[in-house]
Specification:
With 294 residues, the chain is α/β, with parallel strands linked by helices. It contains twelve helices and nine strands. 50% of the residues lie in helices and 13% in strands. Strands 3-2-1-4-5-6 form a six-stranded parallel beta sheet, with helices on both faces. Strands 7-8-9 form a three-stranded mixed beta sheet. The longest helix is centred in the middle third of the chain and has 29 residues. The model has no long low-confidence stretch (mean pLDDT 95).
Length: 294
């Protein structure tokens, strides 16, 4: 038996990303407790191994390790107030550092433990166990947390003391958004110059000019496959406030990110909010008066 299986694992927050994480854990035939205020994503989880809890307190009482994947600052603060002693919380949400610090105080007051370990990737990555994690916190807690994170992450990086995780996640999100926006620019410029998007993607992929975003989101741009939602616009727009606040607090300008962000606003204004963020190309095509042949 692997070491991680001696722990009873729970997850609070079964939204787009959380349910993807749960799905991948369950595929490994590992028992998992879960709780969410909505039952929307629960019906597709393997009931042979998944046990739905009636409340956060119920889940905490049944679990040794609790993964939290939450949508808002208040939800994390509320959940952290309900934590019980001896539980280790692996906090994976993308929320401000100040909120994480409040949650840490609540958890420690309840004699529980917590690590800050935001995730990089989307639902598709979660379903395939290909997320990346930025793990931060107390050394002994991180050792245990890494065992659990390895169940659904392809890469777990120890980034030091508690709170470093969310800083790393936010600066990574800057790159994600900028790479996506510039991928759309490249695709549009190439298509308007007579190149097919497939040829553009094939020629650049695997070269020094490429990126993970170009290679993955670029595939969706080729086929205009924007309903295969890995991450829609609501999440990067939510995170943009946290990124801007961090930039202001540290007095570091991020003008390239802020310019790229304007394309996201344009996409949302054109009704693409619930499509994958790769559909920013569709918004640019409209902005710059381009219609694909055929």
């Amino acid at each position: 038996m692997n070491n991680h299986l001696k722990y009873k694992i729970g997850i609070i927050g079964l939204g787009v990303l959380g349910s993807g994480i749960a799905n991948h854990i369950l595929k490994q035939k590992i028992n998992l407790y879960g709780y969410d205020i909505s039952n929307k994503n629960i019906k597709n989880l393997d009931k042979n191994y998944f046990k739905l809890c009636s409340s956060p307190q119920d889940l905490f009482n049944k679990s040794d390790i609790v993964i939290t994947c939450l949508p808002s600052e208040q939800s994390l603060i509320d959940i952290s107030n309900k934590s019980t002693s001896e539980v280790l919380i692996i906090e994976t949400s993308t929320l401000p550092l100040e909120c994480k610090e409040i949650a840490k105080k609540n958890v420690l007051k309840n004699k529980a433990s917590i690590v800050d370990s935001p995730l990089s990737g989307n639902r598709i990555s979660a379903l395939n166990g290909e997320l990346s994690s930025y793990l931060s916190g107390k050394k002994s807690d991180k050792k245990i947390a890494k065992l659990i994170l390895n169940l659904f992450c392809k890469k777990v990086t120890d980034v030091g003391s508690f709170g470093n995780g969310i800083v790393m996640k936010l600066i990574g999100n800057i790159l994600n958004l900028v790479h996506n926006a510039v991928t759309a620019e490249v695709m549009l410029l190439g298509m308007k110059s007579g190149l097919s998007p497939k040829i553009i993607h094939e020629a650049i992929s695997g070269t020094f000019s490429s990126s993970g975003v170009f290679e993955n989101r670029g595939k969706l741009m080729i086929n205009e496959d924007y309903s295969k939602e890995g991450m829609n616009f609501s999440i990067p727009l939510k995170d943009s406030k946290f990124i801007t606040d961090l930039s202001r607090d540290k007095a570091v300008g991020i003008p390239i990110y802020q310019v790229a962000l304007q394309y996201y606003y344009s996409a949302v204004a054109q009704g693409l909010k619930d499509k994958d963020a790769s559909s920013v190309l569709k918004a640019l095509e409209k902005n710059f008066n381009f219609k694909r042949p055929g």
